[in-house]
Amino acid sequence: MDYKKYVDDKSPKPTYLKNCIWAFIVGGLICDVGQFILNSYIKYGLDKKMASTATSITLIFLGAFFTGIGVYDLLGKRAGAGSIVPITGFSNSIVSPAMEYKREGYVLGVGAKMFTIAGPVLVYGIGSSVILGLIYHFLGIS
Questions:
Q1: Domain that includes residue 130, residue range
Q2: Are 121 and 72 within one domain?
Q3: Does 84 map to a domain?
Q4: Does some domain include residue 4?
Q5: How many domains does the chain have?
Q6: CA within 20 to 30 Å of 91's CA: 2, 17, 69, 70, which one?
């Protein structure tokens, strides 16, 4: 019991309000960048559906690029969930393990470890969408 009290006294206390504000600001800025990209694609001639797809692709690329040069990790340390929740966090969760294990080779390193974080999300997301799609199909809902 004394050790737990000692650890509690020495452990840094989290600043919840500051963390929430940073997450809100950074997440909002990422969404603002996404909206700017979407508006730019629409301005230069893409329809809304194609512009949305191009925006998602661009944000995934930017998340992977900034992870590759080490900027996204610095942002994630400061912003927490504000950098993880948007689609850029998804690309970060794929690129980070791939970069970490590249020394083990492209097959056993990058290929095997790339989806260690995002893999379960993809599996359950795709699996649940297939099940829901089958339910809709057999019930005749469109």
A1: 101-142
A2: no
A3: yes
A4: no
A5: 2
A6: 17
Whole-number Cα distances in Å, 8 to 4, 11, 13, 54: 6, 5, 9, 48
**Neighbouring C-beta atoms of residue 31, cutoff 10 Å:** 16
Kindly give the confidence (pLDDT) of every residue in the chain, 142 residues in length, as a single tens digit, with 9 standing for 90 and above. 688 888 888 888 888 888 889 989 999 999 999 999 999 999 999 999 999 999 999 999 999 899 889 888 888 888 888 887 778 888 888 887 777 777 777 777 777 777 776 777 777 888 899 999 999 999 988 6
| Residue 3 structure tokens | 């050790």
> For residue 1, is it within any domain?
no
Q: Which residues contact 50 (CB under 8 A, 6 or more apart)?
A: 41
Distance CA 108, CA 105 (A): 6
**CB-based burial of residue 98 (10 Å sphere; 0-12 exposed, 13-18 middle, 19+ buried)?**
buried
Look up tokens 């700017």; give the residue.
36
Nearest Cα to Cα of residue 64 among 45, 89, 91: 91
Backbone angles phi, psi at 88, to 5 degrees: -65, -30
Which DSSP symbol is given to 11? S
